[in-house]
Design brief:
With about 375 residues, the chain is mainly beta. Helices cover about 10% and strands about 40% of the residues. It has 3 domains: about 20-150, Sandwich (Immunoglobulin-like); about 155-255, Immunoglobulin-like (Sandwich); about 265-350, Immunoglobulins (Immunoglobulin-like, Sandwich), CATH 2.60.40.
Length: about 375
């Protein structure tokens, strides 16, 4: 009888050990241990990827709103862990014999028994406090996991080097313009910026750029932060209907690239008389400077007389009152910064009257 009792006791112990070992192994296979502090262990959260076998039977959470990211993402910047609201959190525990359950609470709220993966959708800083309990009441010290939920896409700004010129319902630019794209993200930070000048072929923004295409140009820009939030809108300063600067947010903008320089002519009010390779004129001649531009229009025409001093804006007709060689230089710039070549008109002003003589002719 004593022998039978001993055998039964030993068998029961072996069965109990086997059951405990099996439970602990399942927990280890399902996910990594949480023995390390949660803030240092990526095993206590799941953002994407295959689920372990034990979790596959859990009810799949509904699609989470609040972010425009395509998928769940997390990002650690060396100090903080950032996620978007599609990220889910999984708690796991292992015990040497009889793991039972995990208790947790979010942001110090009500304590709950963990049964399936869960999201945190509200943007901002959050904490997940948790601890495991085995079947005989052993309770581990509470651990705290810190996260920051980021659901806001970066803010993008297009900054031209010069003010945009608006006319005829168009925003004019030229290859002389350079553009910078600024992006800010208050939480996880900017990951990348892309842009296109034809509306479809996006390229990564690295540094300031110019647009050399002639004619209509469709500009778009896109920004993405480190947890996948994307923005397809950008801000730019434009001229409003009242003529004042206004900042507008757009998904695209149509520029007209004007890379053709103005033309300049210098004309006299009377015909110049060629003689000995010179254009001969009197001091009564008047000279007019004219400029033309087919697209953005002429902004300013500049002149200089006899090479003296700097070019100055042209205002009125030019006359010469002294005898000898003179010349006029003229150039112009359009409203997007294209400068014309310098045009030169040389003249010789003759103010000396002829010297007449008379001879008597007689037999």
């Amino acid at each position: 009888m004593i022998r039978k009792l001993a055998i039964i006791t030993v068998c029961s112990a072996i069965a109990l050990w086997a059951t405990s070992a099996s439970f602990s192994q399942d927990a280890t296979d399902d996910a990594a241990t949480t023995d390390q502090p949660a803030a240092e262990s990526t095993d206590t959260k799941t953002v994407e990827g295959d689920q372990p076998a034990a979790a596959a039977d859990m009810e799949k959470p509904a699609e989470i709103a609040g972010t425009n990211a395509e998928k769940a993402m997390s990002y650690f910047d060396g100090a903080f862990t950032f996620v978007n609201s599609k990220a889910l959190f999984r708690l796991t525990a292992k015990d040497n014999f009889l793991a039972d359950k995990i208790m947790y609470k979010i942001d110090g709220g009500a304590e709950q028994t963990y049964d399936k993966e869960f999201p945190i959708t509200a943007e901002g800083k959050h904490t997940i406090s948790y601890y495991g309990i085995d079947k005989i009441g052993n309770k581990e010290d509470e651990k705290v996991y810190h996260i920051i939920v980021d659901n806001t896409a970066p803010e993008i700004g297009l900054v031209p080097a010069y003010p945009l010129y608006a006319a005829n319902g168009k925003y004019y630019i030229s290859k002389r313009f350079s553009f910078n794209i600024n992006a800010t993200d208050a939480l996880s930070g900017v990951k990348k910026i892309t842009y296109t000048v034809n509306g479809k072929d996006f390229t990564d923004y690295v540094t300031a750029f110019s647009i050399y295409t002639e004619g209509d140009v469709e500009f778009r820009a896109s920004g993405e932060d480190n947890v996948g939030n994307k923005s397809a809108k950008f801000k730019i300063k434009l001229v409003g209907a009242d003529g004042k600067d206004v900042v507008e947010e757009k998904e695209s903008i149509l520029f007209f690239a004007d890379n053709i320089s103005p033309t300049v002519t210098i004309t006299s009010d009377k015909q110049l008389l060629p003689s000995n390779g010179k254009n001969i004129a009197s001091k009564e001649y008047k000279y007019t400077v004219a400029s033309a531009d087919k697209e953005s229009g002429v902004r300013t025409t500049y002149v200089r007389v006899d090479g003296k001093g700097d070019f100055i804006p042209y205002e009125k007709e030019i006359v010469f009152g002294t005898n000898g060689d003179h010349f006029i230089e003229a150039k112009s710039v359009d409203n997007v910064g294209n400068f014309s070549d310098t045009v030169i008109l040389p003249v010789y002003v003759d103010v000396i009257p002829p010297n007449s003589t008379i001879n008597t002719i007689a037999d």
